[in-house]
Amino acid sequence: MNDPDSSSPPPGLPARRVRVSRAGMANLRLSLDTAALVANWRDLGAACGVATGAAIKADGYGLGAQRIVDALAAAGAGDFFVASWAEAAALTMPPGARLAVLHGVQGGETAAALASTAVPVLNTPAQVAAWRATGRSCDVMVDTGINRLGLTPAEAMSGLLDGIVLDTLHSHLACAETPAHPANERQLTIFRAVVAAVRPARASLAASAGIALGRDFAFDLTRPGIALYGGRGSRPVAIIEARVVQIRTIPAGGSVGYGATWIAARDSRIAIVNLGYADGFAGALGADGIVVIGNVSCPVIGRVSMDLIAVDVTAADAKEGDWVRVNFDLVHAAAATGRSEYELLTGLGHRYAMSP
Ligand SMILES: *Cc1c(COP(=O)(O)O)cnc(C)c1O
Predict the structure, then answer these.
(1) What angle do CA 22, 28, 29 make, to 5 degrees?
(2) What are 244-286's pLDDT values in tens digits?
(3) 258 among known catalytic residues
(4) Which of 77, 164, 301, 322 could be a cystine partner for 72, CB 3.0 to 4.6 Å?
(5) Mean pLDDT of the chain
(6) 57 an active-site residue?
(7) CA of 55 to the centre of ligand 1 (A)
(8) Which H helix or E strand runs over 24?
(9) CA 209, CA 186: separation in Å to the nearest integer?
(10) Which fold has domain 238-354?
(11) Looking at 61, 229, 258, 319, which residue is catalytic?
């Protein structure tokens, strides 16, 4: 790709720099329906009646962590979760909002952790020992059966946490998406025992799917992510808009796109729109993708290109330069692509202007 800022000019010629803000250049927008986001958050809180946090790792599942923090903190959310200190450093937390770093303090990260107002979620005995010396508050993860991150229950109950300023004790469910899975009850029983022994200020077990398992799984605080962002049947919050680069007229019998897979059944008007699979609009979505122009639903036709889709706008009033709205319903998209709602959101890519 040509980056005008990185190419040095030939000798004797003045540097030509293109100074345009990224947002000003972008022909793709990813905006957030903050009312829907807040309504999803309230629904999750109402479902179990305890404090509801928000997982905002991976830049808020690709949707923009800062604007999620701002919207949910204004609505009353007090607990946010990122994966790393780099993610924490990129955020400005409003007063009263607490940020926790799920991967804890790894080697070489102590200075960054101490400089941050975020707290670590400690995962290993070594992390616990190192953090105890700082005298600072922390959360701790105990692994009750997912075998991913966290102290073993035996470690957590061995006195290892004595002298630690422990705020929240966490665990994470492996099989919450399958309510009848016996692992859920097994993990619940183990977590209850650890909470009873460690007596943290707060306990937290449930993410989005765990909340649906009922009040027993809620403890003091939940940590939903995907169900805030349109997943698990919640209100869609991501709004994708792109622009019509070109309109073309295709006579009946003409084809469009790679492989000439779409053949016009009648004389057609086709809009070429700057959105492609590099922007998370997976090829499989092309088959029954919908672009909304005005109030008209227009089908995506032919193969999805890296940066472009073609849309049949014969029935719509579309012209070159128009902004159009791309339907990105997660339930539909997951069914069409076989990819998880998580992968679909975090796979949206980096070419969007994050408009409010
Ligand atoms: C990502 C994550 C969450 C949120 O999970 P969802 O399934 O998106 O609700 C909660 N807790 C931990 C530890 C996580 O890693």
Answers:
(1) 90
(2) 999 999 999 999 999 999 999 999 999 999 999 999 998 778 7
(3) yes
(4) 77
(5) 93
(6) yes
(7) 6
(8) helix 22-25
(9) 16
(10) Lyase, Ornithine Decarboxylase; Chain A, domain 1 (2.40.37)
(11) 258
Lining ligand 1 with CB less than 6 A are 55, 57, 102, 172, 207-209, 223-227
57-66 tens-digit pLDDT: 999 999 999 9
Write down the pLDDT at residue 25.
76
Pocket test for ligand 1, best of 172, 232, 237 (most atoms within 8 A of CB): 172
Tell me what pLDDT residue 19 has: 53
Architecture label for domain 53-228 = Alpha-Beta Barrel (3.20)
Q: Where are the domains of the chain?
A: 53-228, 238-354
Instruction: Classify the C-alpha dihedral 242-248-249-251 as positive or negative.
Output: negative
- Best residue for ligand 1 mutational test, from 223, 228, 341 (most atoms within 8 Å of Cβ): 223
Residue 66 exposed, middle or buried by CB count within 10 Å (0-12, 13-18, 19+): middle
Q: Which residue has the higher pLDDT, 13 or 106?
A: 106
SS3 of 167, please?
strand
For 202-239, what is each residue's pLDDT tens digit?
999 999 999 999 999 999 999 999 999 999 999 999 99
**According to the model, what pLDDT value does residue 24 have?**
61
